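Thread: Transcriptional regulator, GntR family, structure

OP (GT): Posting the sequence first so everyone is looking at the same thing. Length is 246 residues per the record. Can we get the structure tokens written out before standup tomorrow? I want them in the notebook alongside the other entries.
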Amino acid sequence: MKNKIDHNSPIPIHIQVESYLRELIEQDEYQEGKFLPNEVELSKKMGISRNTFRAAMDRLVLEGLIIRKKGVGSKVNKTKIKTTLTEWDSFSREMTTKGKLLKTISKEVQWVEADEEIAAALDVKPGTAICRLERIRGVDEDPVVIFISYFHPRVGVKSDEKFDGRLYEILQDKYYCIPEISDEEIGALPCSGYFSKKLNISADIPVLFRKRKVLNAADKILELCYAYYRSDKFLYTIRIKREDMQ
């Protein structure tokens, strides 16, 4: 693995450094917890300024791939959860296949009146009684995501429903509502006091926002879900296949 920079390359230096770091952190020793090499030493070996090296390192820190502690050093962030957008499954099942043992840290079930936004999304009249489920999920006691779900009356959620278990298995096995389609929107939000408290993060960490409409095979909506992820703990990867340009 080369740690030299090609100053004659058309590829910008900081991009070369970033590429090197991405390869470096995949090595077994760093995946197992070894501290990364000292920034000053590496920048000298590469023949670049420390500021250039740090700019590349900052990018990986921002993505949550590296944890940097002042006066201690930098390590690979092994708590980062990755998910793909090539197919859809329940969050619990998807994370289980990746070896992540998630737990529900807190859960609250309420019956609320649908405001105009919720009513429009669920295609019901404003003021309609809707079951609202809020869950905070994470690894051990470390929160990763807030899920806020609103269920269409057609699901038939019972007033005493506790939602103990996997959500989509409950919808299918108990209410005979089979989720088949997920329409999604993804964006980013600043960290408000609400997110800071619920997700235990500082105000400088943005929140990944995911809006999901879950529909059955007849294209009828079952659930509207707002999900708010810690961006330092969660990463989406997207694989897109190019269509024939002709």
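GT: Both are above now. Quick notes for whoever picks this up: The beta strands are 66-69, 73-76, 81-84, 102-113, 129-139, 142-151, 181-189, 207-215, 221-230, 234-237. Residues 84-88 have pLDDT under 50 and may be disordered.
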